[in-house]
Please model this.
Amino acid sequence: MEENVETKDPIVEEPKVGALENSILGDIKSMLGPTYDDESFDTDIIIYINSTFTILRQLGVGPKDGYRIKDKNNIWSEFVKDTEGLDAVKTYIYLKVKLVFDPPLNASLVEAFNTQVKELEWRLNVSVESDPIGGENNE
Model:
């Protein structure tokens, strides 16, 4: 019996290393749906990600002078020092970008996304007050 094993082309697949070394654009794109090598929507997604970084800066998350990405080469460790709070930041950026890039058609889903965004804003704000997310990057 032959086993059919599907392999992926390593040239187009983002290398998986530590969470802080992953591409910001690549991670958000993978949650939104476009593949890592599909650059059709990169400009739009980058603009929405950068707008969300502005909001995060206003919440006190990340570098105090702000942060922007330019392409898929920007990684999470440029924004935060350690993985504490990283999942909340990723989820927040994903939800904010999803709502403008590809919003759900169902009003209940939009409301659920907005509720999650508000909760994450509150939780990130509380985290920043007790221990700034971004560590040395936030100084």
